[in-house]
Design goal:
The chain is an alpha/beta fold. The chain contains twelve helices and five strands. It has two domains: 64 residues, no CATH class; 169 residues, 3-Layer(aba) Sandwich (Rossmann fold). It is 59% helix and 11% strand. A five-stranded parallel sheet has the order 2-3-4-1-5, sandwiched between helices. Helix 2 packs antiparallel against helix 3, helix 7 crosses helix 9 and helix 9 packs parallel to helix 11. It is elongated, with a radius of gyration of 24 Å. The chain starts with a helix and ends with a helix. Keywords: ATP-binding, Nucleotide-binding. GO terms for molecular function: ATP binding.
């Protein structure tokens, strides 16, 4: 390929919004020459590479906007530490069929067992698959909605929690809510019903949600919509955080 042709291709690629092609056209032609590619094979190579670059760029941008606390995957989850948890159930969720069906997933169990890790890992997988995601604790969501309601911007703020394909709601039940606060949660749950997926974590059983939301009737209405299409996984094993803390204490004791 002549230098003039290469420059013309780089200019055109830039105008088309293909900066990666503009930077790598010489590498593509070198690979094509070495493999003695035909025209269609070369075109397939270029388009496949550009699509992969765009997907990776979209994925990274999605993670930046997601507010996820970390980007851990299921490969990093120690299933051996939770022998009562069937890995197949979690890996079935990772196929994202529940997201395709606009259904929900609930992860229940005491603090420290890895509920948030799994929820985040499922969200990362969904982002990789092209779904928009957003992470929030229940307390943060309620606080933001209350502030928006006071400022007359509730409808606009609700969009933050209604637009994503997957909404992750962490730490349901750590703080009891007043009825007005619970009603804001109900609005999010009911408006997302069969329109988008929710992944939630909770340290409370569903029978305790009446106490969490301060009203048995309202809690029942929330659960009715949430659980109609929902995969529920209970994790009742030991705490990872306690395990790590005990190991650190043991090491400190040994050094002393």
């Amino acid at each position: 390929m002549s230098e003039l042709t290469g420059n013309r291709i780089r200019t055109t690629a830039g105008k088309l919004g293909l900066p990666h092609l503009a930077e790598t056209i010489n590498e593509y032609t070198r690979r094509a020459d070495e493999a003695k590619m035909g025209y269609l094979d070369f075109l397939d190579l270029v388009l496949s590479e550009e699509l992969a670059v765009r997907d990776d760029r979209r994925f990274r941008q999605g993670l930046r906007l997601s507010k996820l606390p970390h980007h851990k995957t299921l490969d990093e989850y120690d299933f051996s530490f939770q022998p009562e948890l069937d890995p197949r159930k979690v890996k079935d969720l990772a196929t994202l069929s529940f997201v395709d069906g606009k259904a929900n997933a609930a992860l229940l169990g005491p603090p420290g067992v890895g509920k948030t890790h799994i929820a985040v890992a499922l969200a990362v997988a969904a982002c990789r698959a092209g779904y928009s995601i957003y992470f929030t604790s229940l307390d943060d969501m309620v606080r933001n909605l209350k502030a928006a309601e006071s400022a007359g911007r509730l409808v606009n703020k609700l969009g933050t929690y209604l637009r994503p394909s997957v909404l992750v709601v962490d730490e349901v039940g750590y703080q009891p809510l007043e009825r007005a606060e619970a009603n804001l949660v109900f609005q999010v749950i009911s408006k997302r019903y069969e329109k988008g997926s929710i992944i939630l974590t909770s340290n409370k059983t569903f029978s305790e949600w009446g106490q969490v939301f301060g009203d048995e009737v309202l809690a029942t209405a929330i659960l009715d919509r949430l659980l109609h299409h929902c995969e529920v996984i209970a994790i009742n094993g030991p705490s990872y955080r306690l395990k790590n803390r005990l190991q650190a204490i043991e090491r400190e004791t040994e050094v002393a």
